[in-house]
Amino acid sequence: MRETDLDGVLAIEEASFPVPWSRESFRFEMHENPYAWNVVVKTSGLVVGFACLWALDEELKINNIAIHPDWRGRGLGTRLLRWILDFGRSEGCAEATLEVRPSNEVARTLYRRHGFEEVGRRKGYYRDTHEDAILMTAKLAPEGDGA
Ligand SMILES: CC(C)(COP(=O)(O)OP(=O)(O)OC[C@H]1O[C@@H](n2cnc3c(N)ncnc32)[C@H](O)[C@@H]1OP(=O)(O)O)[C@@H](O)C(=O)NCCC(=O)NCCS
């Protein structure tokens, strides 16, 4: 993710989440957070998806992931998630973690298909609806063990 990607990233963020991250939040992650890795998915130079990650020792935290509404349902989210999990392995992370809304069936199904399991809840986590957050984790097998 580069400065020149930010307009595209923000358009996706704002179309995807009721309480979107600001440009400043993305810029903090890009330029100031030493644990952050921010990636975009591009098609013909157009930003169609992105993810914001933290690699914290053994944990890969997926903080933000979205595909542009016009590009959903074409396998890009699956490919992005696979890339993220491979990236976590290559960084030596033992597990990936994330939070998801109970109402987000598409995302929860996608995560379950990639080995994520529900391990807990954060009560009233989301500021807009006061929904709980479901905590999910996936074990990341080390590279080269055939998993
Ligand atoms: C979650 C998200 C990233 C998935 O991206 P995507 O590019 O649509 O994902 P894919 O095309 O790879 O589809 C993943 C699975 O969801 C299914 N799916 C996609 N859109 C769907 C829909 N509207 N209804 C039901 N199932 C759907 C696909 O069929 C696929 O299942 P399959 O593996 O059985 O084929 C995307 O929906 C998104 O950006 N959502 C808004 C942001 C968000 O909720 N992020 C997650 C926050 S935790």
What would you note in describing this structure?
- The chain has helices spanning 6-16, 23-31, 76-90, 105-113; strands spanning 36-43, 46-56, 59-67, 95-100, 117-122, 133-139.
- The protein is α+β, with helices and mostly antiparallel strands.
- The chain has a six-stranded mixed sheet with strand order 1-2-3-4-6-5.
- It is globular, with a radius of gyration of 15 Å.
- 24% of the residues are buried.
- The model has no long low-confidence stretch (mean pLDDT 95).
- Bound molecules: coenzyme A (COA).
- The site of coenzyme A has 18 residues, from strand 3, helix 3 and helix 4.
- Coenzyme A binds next to strand 3, helix 3 and helix 4.
Task: List the main descriptive attributes of the protein structure presented here.
globular, alpha+beta, binds coenzyme A, six-stranded mixed beta sheet
Hetero groups in this structure are: coenzyme A
Going across the biggest sheet, name each strand in turn: 1-2-3-4-6-5
Task: Please provide the ordered H/E string of secondary-structure elements.
Answer: HHEEEHEHEE
Helix content: 25-40%
What is the total number of structural domains?
1
Structural category: alpha+beta
In CATH terms, the superfamily is Gcn5-related N-acetyltransferase (GNAT)
Task: Count helical runs.
Answer: 4
Strand fraction equals 25-35%
**Uncertain residue segments:** none
> What's the alpha carbon Rg, rounded to whole Å?
15 Å
User: What's the main sheet like?
Assistant: 6 strands, mixed
Q: What would you say the CATH architecture is?
A: 3-Layer(aba) Sandwich
* Name of the top-level CATH class: Alpha Beta
- Total number of β-strand segments? 6
Overall body shape: globular
